[in-house]
């Protein structure tokens, strides 16, 4: 519902103060434009959100200088004052006119400076927002040895710049939305026209328009609103922190969703395999890239199944263990007061506690806690005969394996899955293990991310993609021809 | 969403419960892992005596090294094998578990009596593997199972490892439960089982001066069966011959005398011994020809010779063939004439080659015909090269 701007300057001022409460950070400064018939005007802005230097040099300075060129045009009475000011008075690069006070207020909140002029029902919006923001630093959750060192930051504008700098293509589009009735968070959908699948883009826009919430504070909010299967344990939308990764994914035909105030961008559509692929694979030699992917798949499987496998062997299928290993396992289990499953659960929980504590603990004491934790849980528990040494190996190996998976949130989901598999296995042995595994895979192959099968290109099978860029990272010379087809099959 | 999968989930869950035969969890530490089992028949009471060697896993705690024995050996009696094994539970604190059993030792008394109960029990029990080694021992199986032998932590492991290296000396055969079971069931082959001996071979460090060491289990020779009973043992040389013909031994090392008077020997290593058996009708009786061919090399020669290489090779080839033929003929002599047991599957050969005659004439009274069948052995040995490429040490001066 637009609220029209009054021609009366005082009235506008009062209404603005009303909206922003009297003693707010809203600043209103009156002045006279001598060069333009001594007309009265004021600029409104929010302190700190707008850049004071820019206000000075772009707005106040040109308007208040007596020798300024508007003078000649002032006589031309056919033209309205705002037009003259916009055309030849202001130096700000982005200037728009509005008649709606609400829009003016929104722009104020976004850091813009709004110019109101006497006897004029229009306001001039100068986009000169500039507030303190974090410097561009290493991405924290997405570390690579080789590759760009910049990570996304909290400003969506800066993030757009980082992508734009990498892809200098006019087909790279950014579409801005503001979502959240209260937060009015800027959400930017970026894609490369011509590569992107139009149907997926349409679906995404459709889903974005349907979001009904008062706040989007982090892209995680958005992720949940956009997902296909909201109750699935697997994240069907990848979140990334690296602009180089974002650019690579854009070139694959994916859509990147940037959200203001968070360094995490979303990738649509996403595949399960994204979690074992890291941007660094493409930067290192392809032997290494392929090798680490194989290692990651191995780690991923171990991180879910290793504890269950151990419990299964120890409490059901003793005949499956090679004899010398069985002897070692039995020796370790000798005198342990808990059944293997309880032992596993205790260790798993302790491991999760340690991991969680590791994130929360202030850095200076973090090291001390991790050493104590490792010592207490590993060494002492074994010495005291509460846990078997092999169980310590199994649990810590599974834990370390889960950190080798690049997609941190996929690996978290997998860690959660470890428990149901463990429980089923401890009740039904191998049978439970297989049923749990089947259930996981059934779920995985049935998932879709924006209509694209989550487990593709493996299920449904697309030989080209599986051969060139799934487990094997083919040399670029071969891959660059093949890679573009990735999202074109739904 | 959930309702959609409700059917499939419930079917899976029901399958979980119904399809598993026995799913009860048993901790590895609640089980007594049998490593070796020995079965005797006690002569006076006509009961089975089962001796089991059970592994006692050692705690890894380095600060408190336990001086305990790594194994716990016990025996129990019973009228049936099953009862005897169940009787172990009367004093064993853990449930006996057979899946890791490495070797079944059949006592001489038991083997001479009847091995049917053993075959029956050990092939029916799902925990037991058909790949477990089987051997007949001289004397009581109980002693073999309780002897500390070999280098491994568990004596049974040492004993079972012997079966992996039997071909180095080629003086024994190896039998696992499935081979014994196959021969036992067969109409045309008789079982031929590995044999074990106890020999005082182990020298303890501080008792080095003692005349005799401690007993070790030795895998040597074979036991000849006729249907359910053991008839007797064969010597190592006979066993070598029989093992070759049974295609159980495919390599061997022989000490070949080149000059019997001066006792000069060369060691010959034979590889890829191939056996071809054929039969011909000669009048009423079939005659069997066994062709053995093998290649080998001279691996040791500790004397000097004036002969040229070719002549020397020829000499060694002939001598080796002679020894090999001798071993085989000795073996055949023993099983055919002495024990009258068809361990070489001559019957099967006749069955295949002369099917009609087999059914009309031989099958019914094969045991009477078999000892009279002429068997010829032809051996060809080819010394491909000498691995002693250099001149033997003694030739150097």
Description:
By secondary structure, chain A is α+β, with helices and mostly antiparallel strands. Chain A has 3 domains: 9-126, no CATH class; 156-270, no CATH class; 284-469, no CATH class. Chain A has helices at residues 9-20, 52-64, 70-74, 81-88, 101-109, 156-166, 198-210, 219-226, 243-251, 280-283, 286-315, 323-333, 340-360, 363-383, 389-403, 408-428, 430-446, 463-469, 476-482; strands at 26-33, 39-46, 95-98, 113-117, 123-126, 172-179, 185-192, 238-240, 255-259, 265-268, 448-449, 452-453. In chain A, the strands form 3 sheets. In chain A, strands 1-2-4-5-3 form a 5-stranded antiparallel beta sheet, sandwiched between helices. In chain A, strands 6-7-9-10-8 form a 5-stranded antiparallel beta sheet, with helices on both faces. In chain A, helix 11 (286-315) packs antiparallel against helix 15 and helix 13 (340-360) packs across helix 15 (389-403). The longest helix of chain A has 30 residues, at 286-315. In chain A, 40% of the residues are buried. The model of chain A is unreliable at 485-490 (pLDDT under 50). Chain B has 397 residues and is of the alpha/beta class. Chain B is 32% helix and 32% strand. Chain B contains 13 helices and 14 strands. Chain B has helices at residues 2-19, 81-88, 108-113, 116-124, 141-146, 155-162, 166-169, 177-185, 236-245, 309-338, 346-353, 355-362, 366-369, and strands spanning 31-42, 47-55, 71-78, 95-97, 103-106, 133-137, 175-176, 192-202, 214-226, 229-234, 252-259, 264-282, 285-301, 375-386. In chain B, the strands form 2 sheets. In chain B, strands 1, 2, 3, 4, 5, 6, 7, 8, 9 and 10 form a 10-stranded mixed beta sheet that branches. In chain B, strands 11-12-13-14 form a 4-stranded mixed beta sheet, with helices on both faces. In chain B, a hairpin with a 4-residue loop joins strand 1 and strand 2 (47-55). In chain B, helix 9 packs across helix 10 (309-338). The mean pLDDT of chain B is 82. Chains A and B meet through helix 12, helix 16 and helix 17 of A and helix 1 and strand 1 of B.
